[in-house]
Amino acid sequence: MTITLFTFVDLYSRALVTLDHLLTKGVARAEELGVGEGEMLGWRLIGDMNPLGFQIMVVVNFSRWWPARVAGLAVPEGIDADLDVAGFRAAIAETRAYLGGLTAEQFAGRDDVPFTHQIGPGMEPTMPSGQWLSVFATTNIYFHLSTAYGILRANGAAIGKPDLFAGGL
Predict the structure, then answer these.
(1) Inter-residue contact 18 to 164 (CB < 8 Å)
(2) Which CATH superfamily is domain 7-101+127-165 in?
(3) Which residue from 16, 34, 137, 150 puts its CA 20 to 30 A from 57's CA?
(4) Reported pTM
(5) What are the C-alpha distances in Å from 109 to residues 115, 129, 143?
(6) Which of 21-25, 80-84, 119-123 has the lowest mean pLDDT?
């Protein structure tokens, strides 16, 4: 298998399938506990970390934004962290549809195109587009996906390592 920037489109789509699967498991756990989805989306690993809804938002937004940026396309609108479960599910489906419309040709020759982006106060690095996608975006997507997993697991959701591969191998 040849790895190209376009390979990450499928990787992110798989991460979104996994995210939706984890959300299903979270909803089931919330129902077992008799808590509402709003409370579930507010679950955290620890008090000073962002809640589950924030983790979902970042996975969805980064899966939309970074392929578009790297391909030189208009960046799709992001979602907010305060959606309900149905809103998150719709955003996941919309993002997968967006990714499904991207083509390998849109990424061809873009690996080394310099790209500058502000990622925090005083942090505006310029890196090759391929590095933004393969390192920065992918690390963040999997950090927030793993954090969502951890939040759900810590709250008793019936999940294990195989659930991280719900999107396929």
Answers:
(1) yes
(2) dinb family like domain (1.20.120.450)
(3) 34
(4) 0.96
(5) 14, 10, 28
(6) 119-123
